[in-house]
Records
---
Amino acid sequence: MTTLRARFEALEAERERDWPPERLRANRAQRQVLVDRFDPAAVVREGQRVESFVLDTPAGPVTLEELTSGGDLLLIFFRFAGCPACNVALPYYDETLAGPLAAQGVRIVAVTPHLQEEGADAIRNRHQLSYTVATDRGNALARRFGLAFLPQEPATPPVAGGEWIGSLTGTGTGELPQPALVLIGEDHVVQFVDVSPDWLRRTEASSILPRIRAAAVS
């Protein structure tokens, strides 16, 4: 099984072949700005207790209490359903994490500000993901966890497909969450956090699986 990093390197190589140089430079510059701005002290921490929240799913609203009623919860924050890197990462997590986590009684939910009514679940259907894709309306949970960011300059170009990201998320802005994995225990205490300010450098399964296995035997 290829690593997530290798899959992203293949995506980047494809862009180097197909994109104009100025577009490639702009994409890399935007990612570097997010890396430079990132403050680890500003994000949710391991050992922190999470207060109740609500996410929207295709089946309706769901609370933290409901999501953790049968065990621990892994939240996979991603940008939006049309994000090319997210369409690489989410199937990877399904392939590498879904089986082992299910065996440990850990539920997976992917979280995005992309509204359900604007097609948030499209990425799940596209890749036949085994886990739920939920909407964090207005980036409320991402903001609480210190994951939300705005581009350095006002974001006005449409996303792929010609739709404005502010309409897809309902925020009217370019605000998105930084990709992150957050493992929350059944007791609502954060057990693992890994944030990826560069959206082409995300958490490998090998980084979180040992932590989940350790938590299961502790």
Note: The first helix runs from residue 4 to 18.
---
Amino acid sequence: MTIPFDDEPVCCGICRRQAVGLGYTPKFGKRIVWTCDDPTCLSLGKTVFHMPAKNLTQQEAFSLSEAGEEAGAYLESIGKFSLAELTEEEWIRFLKTVLNAFGDRMRARLLSQAAPF
């Protein structure tokens, strides 16, 4: 993935949740990394803005994989292994698990400055 340099706040550049009107841009910059209102995402805007796209993509891939593991653990906890078997409520919880775990993992990886390999 690439850094979402949207003209208006749409997607948080760190966790991919809904962005608010806060973000990072260098002095006299024309591009902005919008963030959500999570204090950690706000503090990581500069890091992500200046991160090479290849490194960011690798961090996202690791975070998504880790989020998938957490979502798999949720499925295991309810004893269902086919997405087609999920009720609407279980499906929503599954999706929220992926989304929230992805954001948590991205923030943690970026804060720890984990090597992107």
Note: The mean pLDDT is 89.
---
Amino acid sequence: MKIAVVILNWNGEALLERFLPSVMEYSEGADIYVVDNASTDGSVDFLKQHYPTIGIVQNAGNGGFAKGYNDGLKNIEADVFCLLNSDVEVTPNWLKPIKEAFNNLPDASIIQPKILDLNQKDHFEYAGAAGGFIDMFGYPFCRGRIFQTIEKDEGQYDDVKEVFWATGACMFIKSDVFRKLGGFDEDYFAHQEEIDLCWRAKNAGHKVYYVGQSHVYHLGGSTLSNMNPKKTFLNFRNSLYSITKNLPRKKALPIIFVRLLLDGIAAVRFIFQLKFDHCFAILKAHLSFYVNFIKMYRKREKANFLLKYHITTSIVWSYFVHQINNFNILVKD
């Protein structure tokens, strides 16, 4: 199995200098590439000087996460792409359990490892944790992370489990599946495009797995922090995009209606927290969604839609009303 570890970079020379050493040391047998999104710092020169064996793909512009990977991966040949954030520290033998999972699970098309917090290594990290899920209304959450509550890693997710979505911070995907799906949706620009990709993959009959025997450490927030209004905008808008594209029409429209109401409640909550820029970000997200609704609707998959795509009705209700902030308690509930 030929694996290509592909790091997307935009003006991230400092991150490359900090995190590439672990990738180079512990990625035995894999080809390593950096796809550069038209950086204006010294990233490319740094790579050429210090890592001449790394493959460099230079994109013509900065199209964000989605277009950046779509353009870059056209120039890379491998059986499996590992899409790795530039702020991830990998660990010894991190690739071995992933290879074994692909070999032992012929229906596995997408896999993610355990994602731990670089700054608090015994805790899961926000972006992906131990594998992702969504509720009926498209709100994402993870084993090990529900909204802002992060679980401590005590071995509770040291398993191999089918999940709904894998994080773009460290996602392994079969190259033929990525290409058949048309890659990421470039209208997302960044954030939640991996959820849409996994949702489209599952609609097409593929499966997504989490492999807890492999783990990496993610710094997180190096591009946009969790509390950045732009990230709020992208997350709320892109989640609505995914519902529109990936649910049957009769199910999608009422779900969208309820979701818009729930987003409104979230906006009011931001007002009470005096986070007016986040409230405005939700308003902008909805306006952008209205403007692009027809465009998204036309992208709907022709394949059979999953009718069972969620494991809980409302993560918002469970978390904020019932105070459930642990995945295993949520599932039992």
Note: The first helix runs from residue 13 to 26.
---
Amino acid sequence: MRDPLPSQPGNHAKQDNEYHREGVRNLFLACEPLTGWRQVQVTQRRTKHDWAAFVRELIEIHSPQAEKVVLVMDNLNTHTMASLYEAFAPALARRLCEELEIHDTPKHGSWLNMAEIELSTLARQCLNRRIGSPLELEQQVGAWQQDRNSQAPKIN
């Protein structure tokens, strides 16, 4: 908090509350609109390595039986097959690439609406207040994800 400005003749003292930022986090979100499943991961940054780790988890943990994992996503510079090669050994990166089918969207693609629906719901139901720590954020997002997946709302 800033020091208040003292009162003067004809004016009251003035006090300003200053917001102190405790840090920021990135959220990676994947959703299957037809099944109502979603996965959210909280990371400290949004780097190529962070994205690669998220994709690896999608493939190996959440979709191990899938022949292909189809990702439709925006055109960020971190969202490329090359990111997998930067993050992992060549053999692992190649295996992950073979299990992925990536579609970049046009600038005004309708998939953005689907992603925005999930992110908006997450923001309204979970992130609509101050969250005190990164650990609390992970716990709150995890609880939201579990509840949302148990309801399995689909995106039409």
Note: The longest strand covers residues 26-32.
